[in-house]
Amino acid sequence: MNLALWIVAGLLAAVFVFAGANKLFIPYEKLAKAPGGGWVNNFSPGFVKALGTVEILGAIGLIVPAALDIVPVLAPLAAVGLATIMVGAAIVTSRRHERAHAVLNLAYLALAVFVAIGRFGPESFS
Fold it and tell me: What number of H helices and E strands is found in the chain?
């Protein structure tokens, strides 16, 4: 179970670093024109950059505290935070009738919940 949690946390971290970096470094206008990027038009450029920053910090929080054994309780807390972001993302994409993106967001939500439950419960680091 511990190995599965590490693998899922690593995959989630990679996804969120990539997604966050895109939000931070790709211009707002270009993000809005990208496939599946229409949601950007519902938010300000500052919000999109802040969201990208939070996603990268969440990805770091999934791995670094546990790997370095420095306040490892931050790993499941990061998973809860990323799950919360995915709830919002699923709602936004669902309201925009982008079902495929909503399903993908729900899949990421499920993975984040798996990590949070696993790390708070049977495979905690304490």
Answer: 5, 0
